[in-house]
Specification:
This protein is mainly beta. It is built from 1 helix and 7 strands. It has 2 domains: about 30 residues, no CATH class; about 80 residues, Immunoglobulin-like, CATH 2.60.40.790. The strands form 2 sheets. The chain has a 4-stranded antiparallel sheet with strand order 1-2-7-6, with no helix packed on it. Strands 3-4-5 form a 3-stranded antiparallel sheet, with no helix packed on it. The protein is about 10% helix and about 35% strand. The two termini are about 40 Å apart. The radius of gyration is 21 Å and the shape is elongated.
Amino acid sequence: MTKLALGTHPFLLGFEQLERLVERTAKSGNEGYPPYNIEQTSENSYRITLAVAGFAESDLAITVEDNALVIRGRQADDSEGRVFLHRGIAGRQFQRSFVLADGVDVGEAVMENGLLHVDLTRATPERIVQTINIKKG
């Protein structure tokens, strides 16, 4: 039995990019920092929440690049002249990427109690029924 790749299945016409999208998502390089939640807040909206304790709004950048939501964090090094006996609070830079489907728009971003909330909405596609005329050949 021959195994077909998802993008080459005969009933999935025009989905060739789906396989590349899955590969890109798998290779996004996201490690476990910072931790995050994704919740569905309504039928067509979502909220991504990242734990960014210690980061100020000016330390964070949120962009949409090639259908991907990219959140970056970089703190200035303020350890000059400080002596740490133990340093367990992560203050390293990060980049977290989320691939967005067509029609998903990034709304507002809000910082609250060390959590960064980014709201997303998905536009409801209009149902279109099209009748195709058959010509005599």
